[in-house]
Amino acid sequence: MRRQLRSRRAPASPYGYRYRLDDQDEVNQNYLADEEEEAEEEARVMVVPDLEEEEEEEEEEEEEEEEEIEEEEKEEEKGQGRPTGNAWWQKWQIVNEYLWDPEKRMSLARTGLILVIYFFFYASLAAVITLCMYTLFLTISPYMPPFTERVKPPGVMIRPFAHSLNFNFNVSEPDTWQHYVISLNGFLQGYNDSLQEEMNVDCPPGQYFIQDGDEDEDKKACQFKRSFLKNCSGLEDPTFGYSTGQPCILLKMNRIVGFRPELGDPVKVSCKVQRGDENDIRSINYYPESASFDLRYYPYYGKLTHVNYTSPLVAMHFTDVVKNQAVPVQCQLKGKGIINDVINDRFVGRVIFTLNIET
Amino acid sequence: MGKKTLEIYSVELSGTKDVEQTDKEDGKERYRGLKNCFHSKKDHHTEKLKKELDLDDHKLSIKELEKKYGTNIITGLSSTQAAELLAQNGPNALTPPKETPEIIKFLKQMVGGFSILLWIGAILCWIAYGIQYSMNKSSSLDDVYLGCVLALVVILTGIFAYYQEAKSTNIMSTFNKMIPQQAFVIRDSEKKTIPAEQLVVGDIVEIKGGDRVPADIRLLSAQGCKVDNSSLTGESEPQARSSEFTHDSLLETKNIAFYSTTCLEGTATGMVINTGDRTIIGQIASLASGVGNEKTPIAIEIEHFVHIVAGVAVSIGILFFIIAVSLKYQVLDAIIFLIGIIVANVPEGLLATVTVTLSLTAKRMAKKNCLVKNLEAVETLGSTSIICSDKTGTLTQNRMTVAHLWFDNQIFIADTSEDHSNQVFDQSSGTWASLSKIITLCNRAEFKPGQESVPIMKRIVVGDASETALLKFSEVILGDVMEIRKRNHKVAEIPFNSTNKFQLSIHKTDDPNDKRFLMVMKGAPERILEKCSTIMVNGQEQPLDKSTAEAFHTAYMELGGLGERVLGFCHLYLPADEFPETYTFDVDAINFPTSNLCFVGLLSMIDPPRSTVPDAVTKCRSAGIKVIMVTGDHPITAKAIAKSVGIISANSETVEDIAKRLHIAVEQVNKRDAKAAVVTGAELKDMSPEQLDELLTNYSEIVFARTSPQQKLIIVEGCQRQNAVVAVTGDGVNDSPALKKADIGIAMGIAGSDAAKNAADMVLLDDNFASIVTGVEEGRLIFDNLKKTIAYTLTKNIAELCPFLIYIIVGLPLPIGTITILFIDLGTDIIPSIALAYEKAESDIMNRKPRHKKKDRLVNEQLAIYSYLHIGLIQAVGGFVVYFTVYAQEGFKPNILINLRVEWEDSNVNDLEDSYGQQWTWYQRKYLEWTGYTAFFVGIMVQQIADLIIRKTRRNSIFQQGLFRNKVIWVGIASQIIIALILSYGLGSITALNFTMLRPQYWFVAVPYAILIWVYDEVRKLFIRLYPGSWWEKNMYY
Where is the composition biased (Acidic residues) (chain A) (predicted)? Predict the structure, then answer.
């Protein structure tokens, strides 16, 4: 039936017809379409001619053409809309046909229409999401996050840190510890006394450094000078003790906006052997000697206004550690409001690392 | 033509001639049918058949038989011989059709559908862990767990599907239970009762009325033996059996009784010539199991759908695997992405949902007397475009009923409805009094005792169909027939036989003053008329002249033309002087007159259509379903019933009708003018497949008459060549190949043989055609609803997939985890998608054409595109908004999230800065990530509620459909919310599940998007309704 119809149409556009026939047959095969199905399809299209389609009084041929275009364009839509259809080869053929056929100029317009509609659909979706996100940000203060429970209690991190919490080095081989020194030096650049004195204020110790005023006012930051770290500042001993087998490790507490340790009870740091013989570490020196984070460094007002905020540090100087064996060390924060025994999170209020100093 | 009718309709009571004629006509066809089947089968079948055809036991004399089987017809086989033969040939039972081993069935469930994809996912998980393990011995076991969960999901859904299948098979196994049969056999010169299974070839068996024939038997002697071959041939006419060889064909000759047929009356002795699978029926049964089961349309649809989804999953998976690798991700990461994409794309719960939906419908249909054996057949019925229906029992009530009476030169109509209650014809005439007496007295049928409380029409009667009809007819009108018979004592009787073609009895009258005997006679009308010289009109005897004879013929023709079986009735009061009270009647010598009787009237009977059938046929017609009647009956009867039930509509004509109307030859009629056609088996036999195709396409109303059950197969194949989905009803064993071949085979629950029930996909418990139509309705509804379910389920796949794609490309922390996805697919979404099965139809589904097998797909482009690219994307956007809200409110604004993935997931980074300069440990971030999962999950869940509501309809507005009409939907919505609440607040503390307790306000972030989905879909439906046939409808209606 189809063939008959076609052959009737053939003289009208013999060139296009030829190509179409070949392609269509292949497509037919792909879709396992049978003649009857197509006949029915044609019948349907004839009964319900397309609304926005050209003049209806045009011949049956024309209608058949339309129908084919429609098929075409459905596929086109599929091909474009769903970037990874189930059968690539099918798509390839359709695209191929699309590119080939001179008669398909119409379908360009149709495809165009679909593209426009999808464009508008997605554009409005994008507009909606933008609007939503915009209103969301209107409700969120840029200075203070709405919720901080997740990030509390504070976590702890140490320096030097190079993707590992195992400090393995050989005192007599500088190559094995040189990177720690470089890392520490780099980290402490921001703590240089000159820089701190220039940027930050020296605020009174032992009390919060509370700065009232508008939220959006820039906040001042308290000085934390490199020299506070004494022997671990790298000023006297540029190798931070690594060359003598007495490594310095700096400990810092994670910043949390608005976090205030208990008044009069600054957070202290204490380290001990985590597992094994306690005497593996015979002495640790802490700098500042109080081994605590002074209250004047709190609260933190957030990145936006508290630009120069310098995280306070506590340096641990392991002056006498057993050599040539791995010593697991656990450093904990102690103080009110500090939790240091969360099972799942080994960095909340504590940090565990191993020292393996070879001589 | 008139003459022919006369001949055929002169047959009554046992209708032997009728049967003979059928046999003659059908003899060859049956073979042809068989041969046709065998042709398409493997060679050994053909071999087998040939062997069977060579069997000539019916031609042999008894002596030759004895020699052949080494037996003796007096003493039978010896026990030792029998035991030997039994050991050699096996028991006399049909081998049950080869069942797929349970374990294979189970494994099939494990690898079917999406299971393969999920297995791949699971294996990839384990491979990923293997790689991790080889790099780092202490790597986390998460991937192993995920792999196990995926495997568990596959196994559980597999077990579920297997269980469902097993359950529906179990329904059937009750049918298979047969009462162990006993056979009465002569062995060692003794009569013994042994289980029929132990019969061997050569055994001499005795059968009597009511027995089932225990094997193929060559009759050696018979007394009034009649068998019902309906289980073999589908014709329920009793057939006489004798020891004479009457036909060359084994199937037609009278001296063979077939296994599994029933002996209706009489007794016979015969020799077993075939046992077990070598019996004719055994061969047909094995033939049926040889006909491949066609895949059900819904199975094809689901496969198509699985292909689409799997195709999308695999191609997106591979595409992004390549993208991930080219973005310099590690292969390990790329594998994990692949797993995520597969899990997100596969609707894990869907196939189980479909199974549940189908079984819900199957249950509903079982309530309406359609017992579905194969779950998928539920839908097949809905897509049926041609129903080939039996006549007897399915379209008709399967009992002869008096339809018309003719007396006093007038035709009266009797009530043929199921309860017979309303007999309105004129009963005042004297002729009726006489006629009723003849009807009552000249009748051997009796009610079985003890049925006084049973309605008359339902009482069980001993006797043949016509006599039963007459008995019930007279009982309804006259009251206690047995009492009347008692009062009119029967003194002599000549039962019906095929040579006389009449039945006669002589009674004393109940009038004590009248000493005459009354002779009553009924039989073939023209035979009765021959014996009459007078006719009773208005209670008065008048001489039978030419005009009254003419009137008789006109009435006879008219009733015969209605396809009814006509009986003539006459009587004679024997003169008291010649026949005194003490007279002894000798029925053999016939010492009484049997001519010059008084003709009283005609009575015609038909197996009337069931009262619900015409409606059902009309429904089928408006539903675009072609109903074809296939019957073994005479064309005229078939046509009459077809007309009365509407299979041939009132205004359509056959070629013959047109010829008759225009008084031209049949050949001159333009065949295109005729809409209806009545085709006999004989004509069908001579048709080429092309001619049959032409017949099936050109005529919309077709009746096949006088067909053998084997020809059903040819008809079914013809219909299937038209691309139709064919439903076939059947009851005989011979129907089973056609039942198997059909897209949906429907066996009769009451009249059907076990073989037919086995071969069928569906069993009609009440044998009623109307039940098929309700089944069709349910089937169509389920197709629509499955579409909705699938659209609902597919939608969220995009919302689950997008997070992975964004995660890979933009490097956000993972918005939703694989486990969480599984909780949506197998948790919150399950009950709602089942709830859609309870949705009512949007419009009258019986007013549209059956769906086209290859065009109206379950999952079409429009559905996929609309679900994936419209609603799915809105959902994804909604989900992301919730996700971003959670992250932003915790400190991570979207801009900082971009490309944060690597650091975010590095467990060594424990001071990652957020937008506010706060520093997060790895576990804190992880917890936030899970909160994000939960938030995204809740976002999808909230929007799925909207999705569920919009999927209630495809074209109508939700408000037209009624928001609250389907209560189950609300159960589904409640279940969704409750499961989500439990997951978040109940199980939020179990870290392995990756759920956290979500702040209450986050539950509402996606609500605007839910509303957007609803509004968007309402707009879509509005445009579809406003502009039917438009570009919009073509692209947006799924």
Answer: 50-75
